[in-house]
Amino acid sequence: MSIPVGFDTLYGISWSPDNKKVAVGLSDSTLRAFDISTGEQVLFKDHHDDWVLDTVWNNKGDHLVSVGRDMAVKLTEVA
């Protein structure tokens, strides 16, 4: 499956613990997550001030930690 996310560089790609979602950080300062079976974007957050360099899911798969080039660490709930 191919999921278009624009022309920005992807960073910190991580799979959810149940392997049903994938999260990515982008150089446009956004954090995004996608449902692998449908390609639907299930999360879009623009809360970093610079590139999102890494993403990590928690064990339950309902939260994402993102780290940005802005030296901020953000915790985001994923529905």
Could you state the order of secondary-structure elements as H and E? Answer: EEEEEEE
Provide mean pLDDT, rounded: 92
State the domain count. 1
| Counted beta strands | 7
Report the CATH C-level class: Mainly Beta
Rg value: 11 Å
Distance between the termini: 22 Å
Would you identify the CATH architecture? Answer: Beta Barrel
Please characterize this protein's 3D structure.
The strands form two sheets. The protein has a four-stranded antiparallel sheet, with no helix packed on it. A three-stranded antiparallel sheet has the order 5-6-7, with no helix packed on it. The protein has a single domain, classed as Thrombin, subunit H (Beta Barrel), CATH 2.40.10. A hairpin with a 5-residue loop joins strand 5 and strand 6. It is mainly β and 79 residues long. The protein has no helices and seven strands.
Short description:
This protein is mainly beta and 79 residues long. The protein has strands spanning 10-15, 21-26, 31-35, 41-45, 52-57, 63-68, 73-77.
